[in-house]
């Protein structure tokens, strides 16, 4: 379906609840692919469900981890899926086959993972209580530099094209690093008032435009321009374009994201299932979407192309969309909808082969209209599917997953003939599971500081107190 016909000239944000995607287990996080045709949902039991978003059905199920999945990220061509779990593992999955290509083990839980937007051989890992890492699929990894204050509670994110990595710590300091050399290109600090600082919870970028938002602990969402921030340099003081907050309820934000066109900002409340939508250019609140009372929000994502939002609460993915009103005038321009029946008086020559009442000028105009040639063979690229630096669409993109038909009463020997006759079947699928190559596993060791300090007894530690000599006669 042509996306240009679906775009409305008015509001371009969801207005009402449009159903739910109820997986077999409790959903914890979700992520759209680049086209918005597939939705990956990570669950509490470690499984990943890939939904076909057009048919609202499960296209594939992957038994990925043992513990809950906490973060998901699609590659640019949508053929790979990156997952992180609380079992300290980060895995790269082949979406078509469902096989694990590479597995990385960390000594600490992972907060967030993200593929490089332009290179699926690199991805970003944000471990808990440690500096972020830039991992190469060849097995090499680089630890991103941290600020001079030494704060290790760091969150990191790629920019729109993967040229820079933005990191933020719990003391309000944001560093902009070159993604290749890891050199600091710019930095600034978010302060509240004159001296106090606020912790940075997340950094999100728009798919279109040069803006990013920073979700901080002071319940304010700040929107910055990337060009302005980089021009300010190291220890700069850029001013935010917008400051968004809930002045009435003083809401703390769980997750924030941009719309597909970058014109709207959605933020989910950490106290309840409520979604706030602002217009970025003006900064005014345009809509509040309320879910079921008593449920806490876990994750919020915006569809890359359409005005659709997916939110997770109580293990169910809720879909929010616009109210679609049928407009028959799109098919016939002279069509009119009537509230009640009206008697129609037909003209005398209305059903004649040649209209005698028609004037000569109108007849000439009709001949001109008939001579216009309409090109119906050339496929022009859809602007919503192309980046600003690309001329055409990516032909290698995986938009849909093939699903084998379910046959209730198959004939005898049907499965055997399918394996021999089907030419598209790959040899890997016909091999037994024992002969298939196992995924590569890498152990990444990090220097994690101890969670607690050594308990002191009277100014000395426990070991010194235990070795203290007791007064008396020495033993023979």
UniProtKB/TrEMBL annotation:
Localization (cell): Nucleus
Ranges of Polar residues composition bias in the record: 453-466
SUPFAM superfamilies: WD40 repeat-like
Amino acid composition bias (Low complexity), ranges on this chain: 415-425
WD repeat ranges per the UniProt record: 62-103
Chain residue ranges for the region called Disordered: 346-372, 407-476
Start-end of Acidic residues biased regions: 346-358
Coiled-coil region(s): none
Keywords assigned by UniProt, alphabetized: Nucleus, Repeat, WD repeat
Keyword Nucleus: yes
PROSITE patterns: WD_REPEATS_1, WD_REPEATS_2, WD_REPEATS_REGION
Designated name of the protein: Retinoblastoma-binding protein 5
Organism per entry: Papilio xuthus
Gene expressing this chain: LOC106125272
